[in-house]
Amino acid sequence: MNDLLLKQYIGLIECNNEKISILANTSAFIMQNFQDISWAGFYLFKNTELILGPFQGKIACTNIPLDKGVCGKAASTRKTVIVENVHQFAGHIACDSESNSEIVIPLIKGNQLYGVLDLDSTSFSRFSKEDQIIFEEISKILVQHL
């Protein structure tokens, strides 16, 4: 894991108390520091579904039920989901037809679902276990500041 990258991320968000700004800068930070990511952003849990939050990339779906798509699966199971080929994922929601792989990390704050961090790539099998570790660490740091 890249400790310098995590220190830069902490420096970016630690003096900010505005949740929307923190989420927006986090998505921009990911887009600027990681290769081959076509969409980086958040879906926030509200009532019974995920609602589009700050993101970087093409336009996106605005509402995702917890029983649909990769985001819904990560949110409902509260576990990171890596999909090597989204076209083979049952119930995949195709917001961007150019997306081919995806990783979604649930954001849990105080034992409650806050939302998910959703990352897409136009490459197949883009996201590895190493990516999972660093994105989960970024998510842990993020949740502490929300």
TrEMBL record:
Keyword match Repeat: no
GO molecular function list: kinase activity; L-methionine-(R)-S-oxide reductase activity
InterPro entries: GAF, GAF-like_dom_sf, Phosphatase_reg/MetRdx
The GAF domain, residue ranges: 34-140
Cellular compartments per GO CC: cytosol
Pfam families: GAF_2 (PF13185)
Highest taxon of source: Bacteria
UniProtKB keywords: Kinase, Transferase
Family statement drawn from the similarity comment of this UniProt entry: Belongs to the free Met sulfoxide reductase family.
Name this polypeptide is given: GAF domain-containing protein
